[in-house]
């Protein structure tokens, strides 16, 4: 009976103190690279849309994987300008969104990234020269559009967590 009471006291007092905690603090500003799997551009994306992305590499803190490669993230489209005539390029701005940890818990992200398409200057030059000579070049060069802004697939975009949080992996 004394042996059993000793075992009970050992389990109750000693063992809980020996248990290793698997919790880590993830700090605000932790960088997480994400990629999109399909090309997104200023022609087919609208302001307010959410772009699906995936985490590009494991993010480990104190030997605990907090964000796993392939887990999802969403990026918010905050501004879109389609490519315009006379070579004006398109623009696409993404900012904020969510990233999901290995427990599938969403965390807000803080970043802003602007993508700008290719500006085509030759239509402007030709149009300017054409106005001095004759107005016909307007029909030829005035309708040339600039390039659409593109988010290329599989190219990492650096995002950051927006606030500190405590993470404990599910066992």
Outline the structure in words.
The chain is of the alpha+beta class and 171 residues long. The protein is 20% helix and 37% strand. It has three helices and twelve strands, in the order αβββββββββααβββ. The chain has helices at 2-18, 122-133, 137-141; strands at 24-26, 31-35, 40-41, 50-55, 59-61, 64-67, 72-81, 91-100, 106-116, 150-151, 157-160, 165-167. Strands 9-8-7-4-2-11 form a six-stranded antiparallel sheet, with no helix packed on it. A two-stranded antiparallel ribbon has the order 1-12. Strands 3-10 form a two-stranded antiparallel ribbon. Strand 8 (91-100) and strand 9 (106-116) form a beta hairpin. The chain starts with a helix and ends with a strand. Mean pLDDT is 81; it is low at 137-142.
Overview in brief:
With 171 residues, this protein is an alpha+beta fold.
Keywords:
6-stranded antiparallel β-sheet, two-stranded antiparallel ribbon, 37% strand, 171 residues, alpha+beta
SSE topology sketch:
Elements: H1 2-18, E1 24-26, E2 31-35, E3 40-41, E4 50-55, E5 59-61, E6 64-67, E7 72-81, E8 91-100, E9 106-116, H2 122-133, H3 137-141, E10 150-151, E11 157-160, E12 165-167
Antiparallel strand pairs: 1-12, 2-4, 2-11, 3-10, 4-7, 5-6, 7-8, 8-9
């Amino acid at each position: 009976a004394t042996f059993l009471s000793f075992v009970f006291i050992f389990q109750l007092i000693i063992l809980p103190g020996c248990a290793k905690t698997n919790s880590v603090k993830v700090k605000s500003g932790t960088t997480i690279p994400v990629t999109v799997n399909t090309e997104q551009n200023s022609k087919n994306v609208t302001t307010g849309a959410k772009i699906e992305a995936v985490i590009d590499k494991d993010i480990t803190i104190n030997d605990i994987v907090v964000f796993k490669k392939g887990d999802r993230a969403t990026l918010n489209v905050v501004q879109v300008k389609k490519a315009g005539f006379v070579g004006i390029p398109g623009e696409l701005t993404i900012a904020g969104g969510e990233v999901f940890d290995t427990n599938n818990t969403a965390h807000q992200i803080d970043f802003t990234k602007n993508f700008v398409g290719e500006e085509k200057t030759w239509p402007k030059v030709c149009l300017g020269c054409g106005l001095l000579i004759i107005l016909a070049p307007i029909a030829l060069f005035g309708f040339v559009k600039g390039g659409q802004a593109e988010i290329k697939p599989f190219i990492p975009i650096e995002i950051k967590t927006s606030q500190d949080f405590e993470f404990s992996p599910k066992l």
